[in-house]
């Protein structure tokens, strides 16, 4: 990834006045990655710590590069000042991939992550890079408040909103609006159909359900599934209109969607939104006496509905039922696709775990071989010396 010009790149500084320490040797970093993997499981992100050393041994996903470049570009374009001058919050920061990148650009970054194993990996990476401008907290993002964490120029809400359900979605976004002093980047899945409706503070919002965990999943299994929610079995994916409208309710005066830079492989039901906290314009100079209120987006029609143009009777009833059956099959297919995505993510995590175990076993085998060869060599030397002494 080509970083944008900033006051801190490479191993020299983390901010205009904050020097970094000596870079650890590559072999030392690799050994540290192995120790962290043994204690906390395999890394889910493939992050480059130094040239030639990554947190995983498989090929990096080029989509990760384009996604992070997209975020850095977006923040750089709207910040109005150098990235190194910003205080940035990364919510549900996982293993710190995005937070690390902004910290390496010199920003003061706070990362909040609900899984302790992810926090441990992010802290290892930050320590390896000598980043003292990155704070990492093991906490539930649903505990976010200005009283606890303060205010931020930029809030990154990436891949977390669609893991929350019902009321948590709304209270969480309210907290984002509370701590945000400039702009929030909301990268999330959206509901493509109006399957469920919710009333929050007197307003009705719509969305679709997504299965996060099996109903009988244990807490331990939920924590181990790093690509799912912390505890709730279902999540709510707000529709675009509901998400736009509620962001407005949270104090964001403009909501933009990012199309460029392009994120290759982005699903049709995923959006990257930039929500800006500004002064709300309520009138125009040409008509100062006319107050202009916020205009809400109309909601999607319910997923199952009858066609008002159909005549009543047996034929129209059959047609309506056929439409309803087709819509239900479509919704069930969407739910299956969502479950399969979760299953694929879980299998990838298991593969990475097995790879880490294989590397550990290979290391132990080499130690055993080395020990046996050493003992055999010592025995041969003793026999040779004994034979030599007898010949004398």
Descriptive report:
The chain folds into two domains: 13-309, 3-Layer(aba) Sandwich (Rossmann fold); 310-392. The longest helix has 78 residues, at 314-391. It has helices spanning 26-40, 62-79, 97-104, 116-128, 146-149, 167-179, 219-224, 240-249, 314-391; strands spanning 13-15, 18-19, 48-50, 53-54, 87-91, 108-113, 134-138, 152-158, 180-189, 196-200, 203-211, 234-238, 254-257, 270-276. Helix 1 runs antiparallel to helix 4. The protein is built from nine helices and 14 strands. Strands 7-6-5-8-9-14-13 form a seven-stranded mixed sheet, sandwiched between helices. Strands 10-11-12 form a three-stranded antiparallel sheet. A two-stranded antiparallel sheet has the order 1-2. 42% of the residues lie in helices and 19% in strands. The chain is an alpha/beta fold and 392 residues long.
Q: Count of DSSP E strands? A: 14
**In which range does the helix fraction lie?**
40-55%
Query: Strand order of the main beta sheet, please?
Result: 7-6-5-8-9-14-13
- Provide the domain count: 2
Unreliable stretches (pLDDT < 50, length at least 5) are 1-19, 305-315
| Biggest sheet statistics | 7 strands, mixed
CATH class of the largest domain: Alpha Beta
Radius of gyration: 27 Å
Here the CATH topology of the largest domain equals Rossmann fold
The CATH superfamily of the largest domain is identified as Vaccinia Virus protein VP39
Which CATH-level-2 architecture of the largest domain?
Answer: 3-Layer(aba) Sandwich
> Averaged pLDDT, please?
80
Query: Distance between the terminal alpha carbons, to the nearest Å?
Result: 70 Å
Order of H and E elements: EEHEEHEHEHEHEHEEEHEHEEH
What does the overall shape look like? Answer: elongated
Count of helical segments?
Answer: 9
